[in-house]
Amino acid sequence: MWICPNCQREFKRKNQGHFCGEAPKTIDDYIQGQSHQEELQALRKAISQAIPEAEERIAWTMPTYWKGKNILHFAAKKQHIGFHIGQKAIAHFEEELADFPTSKGTVKLPYDKPLPLELIEGIAKWCLEEYGE
Ligand SMILES: [Zn+2]
Questions:
Q1: Which of 9, 27, 67, 133 keeps 20 to 30 A from 57, CA to CA?
Q2: How many angstroms is it from 102 CA to the middle of ligand 1?
Q3: Ligand 1 center to residue 76 CA distance, Å?
Q4: pTM of the full structure
Q5: What is the number of structural domains in the chain?
Q6: What's the CA-to-centroid distance between 29 and ligand 1, angstroms?
Q7: What is the pLDDT of residue 11?
Q8: pLDDT value of position 120
Q9: Is residue 124 part of a domain?
Q10: Which residue segment(s) compose the domain that 100 sits in?
């Protein structure tokens, strides 16, 4: 474990490259500032492949997919990725998400569990249809 003397964030490797100090403006910047970059990139790749027509941006300080409206967000937390897909999507995918904790429109994807990439792609497509314009 290494703590950046400038921003005080914790990383697995010493002197790990990250977006230090300022608020990230792109999803790349955002992921660079996190300690679980591999998992975040895997999630991002799955979403981008599923809904290439959506635009990547930062909204509410989180990586966001947008098409006319915000479709979904994700955020790196200490123990998990918060996958913000909205109440409607959680209700729709209730059975598939049975193994994952959910609350208020957010699914928790723990870092110590493999990411359910196919399910993530399915959810992203559904959210685009449902929320996009
Ligand atoms: Zn730093």
A1: 9
A2: 31
A3: 16
A4: 0.84
A5: 1
A6: 12
A7: 85
A8: 98
A9: yes
A10: 24-131
Report the separation in Å between the CA atom of 22 and the middle of ligand 1, taken as the mean of its atom positions: 9
- For the chain (length 133 residues), average pLDDT per consecutive 10? 85 84 87 93 98 95 96 96 98 97 96 97 98 95
CATH code, 52: 3.90.1150.200
- Residue 98: the pLDDT is 97
Encoding tokens for residue 57? 């941006």
81 C-alpha vs ligand 1 centroid, how far in Å? 20
